[in-house]
């Protein structure tokens, strides 16, 4: 009796099934830190509102004032936290993908040098300034795109994320261009939430600790609530301080550990434009939106303003005219300017033979 083998499609499906199940299990497990945070916040709400305000505080005026302040900071904390979680990481546009002809040449080519020539040809029309440590064009084989500046591939999210800072397990999401402001606000409001709890609970914490209040079911909740809030405050404050420092320097966590590489070498401050402008890139140029978790960051995440670059006067005039602007305008499209200049980490001005100073500033996207 002849034994026939199953069709190839069936075998392929059987091979893919275990990996699909493992991927689903991994995605489910990734939500455990988020579930833990929500359980802690839910318990803190019960402990504060019910055990402290309802059963322990005797004064109505004090109780109401505590509840109002508590709910304001809780609302801002939860709002910014879930905005960080639910904001899909921003991905590169199709413009950074290889055109069909170049893509076929790239995939057929086996020599790395020739592949780089193909990438360099395509990158001439893109606002790409950074390179790999070896000076090559940054290309993602998984997403099949030329990586925009400050963009990195996240193996957990399985995509290239614009201005990627890091993948945070506590929000089960990549922190990048689309939600970095939300993430910083989440840390800020989480710290303030803990401060409000510690500042209002400490009086009753001391009374329970020194036996000035009778032992009730509220004692455990209030004592534990103070310790948990204080512990979280110390850990979150250190992380918040670090990210505020990064905002002031206009760096991501990745760039803080590995300085971005430009055509002329590494420059850890290559994207720094001064403290005020650095803060505005994350929080926006309208201060009234800074404290709210609504998107107000500047730019498009695809191209970024760099520090002033060396450029000779004739080249400056030709570039500005190519962009339809006169040299007096002093502004240029970064997509065009980026293909005619060399980035340098030092001075931002160049003198011509007559001793005149010429500088060109690149403007960010809308």
UniProtKB/TrEMBL annotation:
EC number: 2.3.1.225
UniProt keyword list: Acyltransferase, Membrane, Transferase, Transmembrane, Transmembrane helix
Keyword Transmembrane found: yes
Pfam families the UniProt entry points to: DHHC
Cited InterPro entries: Palmitoyltrfase_DHHC (IPR001594), PFA4/ZDH16/20/ERF2-like (IPR039859)
Transmembrane residue ranges: 28-48, 64-82, 182-206, 218-242
Recorded superkingdom: Eukaryota
Disordered: annotated span: 319-366
Location of the protein in the cell: Membrane
Catalytic activity from the UniProt record: L-cysteinyl-[protein] + hexadecanoyl-CoA = S-hexadecanoyl-L-cysteinyl-[protein] + CoA
Membrane topology: Multi-pass membrane protein
PROSITE patterns tied to this protein: DHHC (PS50216)
One of the record's GO molecular function terms: protein-cysteine S-palmitoyltransferase activity
Residues of the Palmitoyltransferase DHHC domain: 138-257
Biased composition (Polar residues): 354-366
This protein's record includes keyword Zinc-finger: no
Compositionally biased region (Basic and acidic residues): 344-353
Entry note about domains: The DHHC domain is required for palmitoyltransferase activity.
Family stated for the protein in its record: Belongs to the DHHC palmitoyltransferase family.
Protein name: Palmitoyltransferase
């Amino acid at each position: 009796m002849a034994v026939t083998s199953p069709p190839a499609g069936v075998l392929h499906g059987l091979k893919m099934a275990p990996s699909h199940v493992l991927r689903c299990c991994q995605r489910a497990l990734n939500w455990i830190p988020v579930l833990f945070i929500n359980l802690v916040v839910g318990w803190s709400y019960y402990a504060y509102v019910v055990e402290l305000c309802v059963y322990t505080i005797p004064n109505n005026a004090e109780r109401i004032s505590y509840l109002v302040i508590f709910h304001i900071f809780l609302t801002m904390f939860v709002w910014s936290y879930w905005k960080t979680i639910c904001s899909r990481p921003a991905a590169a546009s199709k413009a950074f993908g290889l055109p069909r002809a170049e893509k076929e040449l790239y995939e057929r080519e086996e020599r790395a040098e020739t592949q780089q020539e193909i990438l360099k040809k395509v990158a001439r029309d893109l606002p790409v300034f950074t390179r790999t440590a070896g000076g090559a064009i940054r290309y993602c084989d998984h997403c099949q795109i030329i990586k925009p500046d400050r963009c990195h591939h996240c193996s957990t999210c399985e995509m290239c994320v614009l201005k990627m800072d890091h993948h945070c397990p506590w929000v089960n999401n990549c922190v990048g261009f689309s939600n970095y402001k939300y993430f910083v606000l989440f840390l800020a409001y989480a710290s303030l939430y803990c401060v409000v709890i510690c500042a209002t609970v400490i009086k009753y914490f001391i009374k329970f600790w020194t036996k000035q209040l009778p032992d009730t079911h509220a004692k455990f909740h209030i004592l534990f609530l103070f310790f948990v809030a204080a512990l979280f405050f110390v850990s979150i404050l250190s992380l918040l301080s670090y990210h505020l420092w990064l905002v002031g320097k206009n760096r991501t966590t990745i760039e803080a550990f590995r300085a971005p590489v430009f055509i002329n070498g590494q420059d850890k401050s290559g994207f720094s434009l001064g403290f005020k402008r650095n803060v505005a890139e994350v929080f926006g140029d309208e201060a009234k939106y800074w404290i709210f978790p609504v998107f107000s960051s500047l730019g498009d995440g695809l191209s970024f303003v760099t520090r002033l670059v060396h450029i000779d006067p004739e080249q400056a005039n030709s570039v500005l005219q190519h962009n339809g602007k006169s040299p007096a305008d002093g502004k240029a499209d970064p997509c065009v300017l980026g293909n005619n200049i060399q980035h340098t980490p030092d001075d931002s001005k160049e003198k011509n033979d007559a001793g005149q100073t010429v500088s060109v500033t690149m403007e960010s996207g809308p």
